[in-house]
Each structure stands twice: as structure tokens, then as C-alpha cells.
Amino acid sequence: MPELFSESISFFLFLAGAILLVAEAFAPGAHLFVLGVALLSAGLVGLLLPGGLGIFAPIILAVVVLALTGLTLWGYRRLDIYGGEGAAETSHSGSLRGQFGTVTERVTTTEGEVKLEDGGFNPYYRARSVEGEIEVGSEVMVVDPGGGNVVTVESVAAGDDIDRALARERDASDSDGNVASEGDSAGDGTRETDVESDRAS
Questions:
Q1: Average pLDDT over residues 47-53
Q2: What UniProt keywords are attached to this protein's entry (predicted)?
């Protein structure tokens, strides 16, 4: 009777692990993978262990499960399945403004698709152009994030690095707060001093 009970628990653990692995496939990023592998391995080891081990069976099971869980967690982080630190985090749609990307499906004023450089886990976005058509492979910049579902883009001329630099500088100043405005006021004071010294001479 105890052997039947241990086999049913092992089968339950195996089944629970399999369900969590399937759930991870439907909800990627939920981090059910590691727990699923741990439960699946616990169930599998429990089913394969002979019944006459007595007190050693739970110890062997614990060591195997801990080792496989640690190995799975290490591999999960090492393989970088979801694209790096913070890539799976959701940011507000306003952060898409000024982002650069490439057209993957011809963009018109009503439809199209782009791949953004810093688009996160899924960098592909439905897109509309400000005016006209933008061909596949063209470089674009997001001018209106539109809530994040459909972005409005405009073509960026090849070699137009000024817009790209300005957009990145604007993003950096937005993240730094009012650091840029303090620097501007200090620069104005320098200009006023220069003007006064020119008037004196």
C-alpha cells in the first residue's frame, strides 16, 4: 500500500510539472519553466526509484530535484531566453517615441509592419506612415506611439544621423530629468558674461 501511495504522488508531481511546462508555452515569461522542470524531475525520479530504498528514497529524490532545479535555473538565465535584463518588462507606450527601426512589411497610411531596434521581447509592431508609402528595408523613426498597438512612423533618410542623435539625446534627457534644463541655464549665464565682456572692450 505505501508503494502505491508513493507512485501516485510521483505521478501527480510528474503530471503537475508537465502542466506547468505547457502553461509556460502559453504564457511566456511567467517563469513557470523552472518549477515545471523541478516537479517533472521529482515525479520521474520518484517513479524510477525502486521501492526498497526506505529512508534513502526521499534523500535521493531531494538531491536530484535540487540539482536539476539549480541546473535548470542556471540554464534558463544563461541562455537568456527572453532577451536580457529587463527586456521582458513592460514599459509605457511613450517610450516608443523616437525609436528607430526597419520596415518589414510595406508601410502605408493605413497598414504595415516595422521592427524596432529596442522593441523588447517582440520588436515587431503594426505601423502607419505619416504620408505616402515606405518600402521594405527602409529605416524609420516612430513619431507617434499610438498606445503601443499601432505606431506612426516616418522615413529616415539614409545618412541622417542628426535626427538619430537628437532623438537619443532627448531620450537621455527625459530619463535624467531636469539635468539638461539646468545645463542650459548655466550656459545662458556664460553667454551673458561673454556679451558683457565684448561690450566693455
A1: 80
A2: Hydrolase, Membrane, Protease, Transmembrane, Transmembrane helix
Instruction: Mention the CATH class of domain 93-192.
Output: mainly beta
Q: What is the mean pLDDT of residues 137-163?
A: 78
In this prediction, residues 9-26 reach a mean pLDDT of 87
Q: Please, which contacts does 146-155 make with residues 24 or more away whose CB atoms are closer than 8 Å? A: 146/93, 147/93, 148/93, 148/96, 149/125, 150/125, 150/126, 151/96, 151/114, 151/116, 151/125, 151/126, 151/127, 152/127, 152/128, 153/101, 153/107, 153/114, 153/127, 153/128, 153/129, 154/129, 154/130, 155/129
Question: Would you list the DSSP string of 100-123?
Answer: EEEEEE-B-SS--EEEETT--SS-
Neighbours of 28 (CB within 10 A): 14
Residue 130 sits at φ, ψ, to 5 deg, of -65, -45
- DSSP 8-state secondary structure symbol assigned to residue 136: T
Helix (H, G, I), strand (E, B) or coil at 154: strand
pLDDT for 185 equals 46
- pLDDT-based confidence at residue 106 (cuts at 50, 70, 90): very high
Residue 113 in grid coordinates: 509592419
Q: What tens digit of pLDDT does each residue of 110-129 get?
A: 999 999 887 666 788 889 99
Residue range(s) in the chain whose domain bears CATH number 2.40.50.140: 93-192
Amino acid at residue number 12? F
